[in-house]
Amino acid sequence: MFDFTKLHSDLFSYSDSEFKLFQCRLIPGLDLNSVIGVRFPLLRQTAKKVQEYGNTDDFFDSLPHKYFEENVLHGYLIERIKDAEICVQRIDQFIPFIDNWAVCDTLKPSALKRKPDLLLKKIMEWISVDKTYYKRFAIRMLMCFFLDENFKPSYLKIVADIKSDDYYINMMISWFFATALAKQWDSTFMYLQGRKLSAWCHKKTIQKAIESYRISDDKKVILKNLSINNAPQPSSATFCTE
After folding, report:
1. Are 237 and 167 a contacting pair, CB within 8 Å?
2. pLDDT tens track, the chain, 242 positions
3. How would DSSP label each residue in 110-179?
4. Phi, psi of 2 (to 5 degrees)
5. CA 212 → CA 171, 185, 218, distances in Å?
6. Nearest partner of 144 among 226, 48, 79, judged by Cα
């Protein structure tokens, strides 16, 4: 039996009221009463010792969680699963309950890197679901695991073909393409040169790439010449400070 009373007691002992308010400003839609205010390094430490509280399966199956920190902890625990098949099962169980970008973006399970075929199959499933954090998570997995040795130019088209006015999807599309410019310049630059992204994603990709230390100054000059001014904002952009 998982001891949630002990877990909550420990989490509240780490509470930082100023950080709690900061998180609520940074992550739109968070209910102040659902946030304890625990810094992420302390949540990672908690994930390492969570077996002290009992059977982790009980924790995984306790969705939906009461606190934001429990959702972050849930992601960190999924990252610690070594079996890729079990890892995917736990992601499928958890992803419907992800309702903000911070929880979505903390989840990067290394077990899936060892099973690229399985991961790619799941990415295509997740990306086809018309829900914000299914798509955002899928794009992030492509960015994290398929822009290096497993890269194929066709992966760029998968992301470029996503058309949305959702801020959190478009921000991840832009982040993906900015990272791809740093890692796969030749294949990716064609998408900027050919204006294959929405005006907003095109502009944000260039902005992120120009801010990146991984892209050379001469390439940044090229990108600046492709800038689009006054691109319209996605509908929810004004509600996020990401």
Report:
1. yes
2. 899 999 999 999 999 999 999 999 999 889 999 999 999 999 999 999 998 898 999 999 999 999 999 999 999 999 999 999 999 999 999 999 999 999 999 999 999 999 999 999 999 999 999 999 999 999 999 999 999 999 999 999 999 999 999 999 999 999 999 999 999 999 999 999 999 999 999 999 999 999 999 999 999 999 999 976 544 455 444 333 34
3. GGGGG-HHHHHHHHHHHHTS-SHHHHHHHHHHHHHHSSSTT--THHHHHHHT-----HHHHHHHHHHHHH
4. -80, 130
5. 15, 13, 13
6. 79
**What number of other Cβ atoms are within 10 A of residue 223's Cβ?**
19
State the Cα–Cα distance between residues 212 and 190, nearest whole angstrom. 19
Nearest-angstrom CA–CA distance, 12 and 115: 37
Here the tokens at position 233 are 């904002």
Strand, coil or helix: 59: helix
Collapsing DSSP states into helix, strand and coil, what is residue 44?
A: helix
List the one residue out of 178, 179, 183, 164 whose CA is nearest residue 236.
164
Distance (Å, whole) CA 54 – CA 61: 13
Helix, strand or coil, per DSSP, at residue 109: coil
